[in-house]
Specification:
2 domains, Aminopeptidase, 8-stranded mixed β-sheet, alpha+beta, 374 residues, 34% strand
């Protein structure tokens, strides 16, 4: 179900919000544009200011209240002026049983080419993920090159074409596209003793101190970091702020009493099927106190919990490590993961073949405790 209490949503370009009566004139003018009439396939053949006001008070308000339809305004982030409309509808279970919805959009001609359509789709994806949906579907006319470019830029993958019934009731040839969605992560994440936050400027010093140690790097894929490498890696990690972004990754600093003691990373390995991998590093000077297991357990619970309970709704999380790293294997088990495989001599690393052990976690695993399911 769509949760109107999470609206409005903003970014630097647009605001996604419920339609307001004062949007009616601009909505009607935009809907009369020839390109909108040709490609948007709106439900009504004509819109007037009065009919839009009636739609806002009736269908739009009722759909948001019921949670099965959202007829929203794409508004300018600075002025809140109406720039177009975005609709989420046909909320249902997909072929795999996961909840999904269809999205449609159009822009007033005065706002085309501004990047607002893509920004609005990104906000809609964030909202849909936070409402517990797993994917958004879109359909657009084969000849609507602009719409297809916008959808591709917003992360939608075309899956084929077929004739279908548009919202206008017409039967038209439509391109189908889909985008998996993930909720924004509410950070910092706190446990009984720890705070998990995003990386920030200044973290390169402690990263170099930990990752520059030979004993830390022994079972990693790289050698000890230099100060320059630590700065470069920090720049990469600062882009890893959530699974919904282009990076499809979340990199968190683990702090105890305000001091960084390690990090935990979560990254998608199959965006469509909601499968991810987790990894971690702890300062050896802080070992033996259970910090790493506490942090990893918290991230696993975040990853596997239902989005309606504040989680990411992943299907599975795996961890892979050098089989000689017995300390990390014990940590995975303490965090609630299950040892699933030992791959013999499968990875060439630092001049030698090494074994890999694989751990996995699913939402129902008893070792994780009660994972919230919404």
């Amino acid at each position: 179900m769509l949760d109107a209490s999470l609206l409005p949503l903003d970014d630097a370009r647009v605001r996604l919000r419920p339609l307001l009566p004062e949007d009616a004139a601009d909505y009607a003018a935009g809907a009369a544009d020839p390109a909108v009439r040709e490609f948007a396939h709106l439900p009504e053949p004509e819109y007037t200011e009065a009919s839009v006001r009636a739609m806002i008070a009736g269908t739009a308000a009722g759909g948001l209240a019921a949670g099965d339809l959202a007829v929203l305004a794409i508004a300018d982030a600075a002025t809140d002026a109406f720039a177009g409309s975005l609709v989420l509808f046909d909320v249902c279970a997909g072929e795999d049983g996961a909840p999904e919805a269809e999205v449609g959009f159009w822009l007033h001609p005065a706002h085309r080419g501004s990047g607002r359509a893509r920004a609005a789709l990104d906000l809609a994806a964030r909202w849909a993920g936070s409402c517990g949906l797993h994917r958004l579907r879109a359909r657009t006319a084969e000849g609507n090159a602009a719409s297809r470019r916008v959808l591709a830029g917003a992360g939608f993958a075309e899956t084929g074409s077929a004739e279908g019934t548009a919202p206008s009731g017409e039967t038209v040839a439509l391109i189908h596209a889909v985008r998996p969605v993930y909720p924004a992560v509410r950070l910092p994440l706190r446990t009984e003793r720890l705070t998990l936050r995003l990386h920030r400027e200044g973290d390169e010093d402690w990263l170099h101190r930990i990752y520059g140690r030979a004993d830390v790097a022994r079972f990693l894929l790289e050698g000890p970091w230099t100060a320059e490498e630590a700065a470069a890696r920090l720049a990469e990690r600062r882009t890893r702020t959530g699974l919904e972004g282009d990076a499809g990754a979340l990199a968190l600093v683990v702090e105890h009493a305000g001091t960084p003691v390690g990090d935990v990373a979560l990254w998608l390995t199959d965006r469509q099927r909601r499968v991810a991998e987790i990894g971690w590093v702890l300062d050896p000077e802080r070992g033996g106190r259970g910090y790493a297991a506490e942090a990893v357990s918290a991230v696993l619970r975040l990853a596997l919990a239902d989005p309606r309970a504040g989680g990411l709704g992943l299907h599975r999380v795996a961890a892979q490590m050098d089989a000689r790293n017995t300390a990390s294997a014990r940590l995975a088990e303490r965090a609630g993961m299950t040892r699933e495989a030992h791959l013999r001599s499968d990875w060439w690393s630092k001049g030698e073949w090494t074994d890999t052990v694989v751990f996995g976690a699913l939402p129902g695993d008893p070792g994780l405790g009660a994972v919230p399911r919404g």
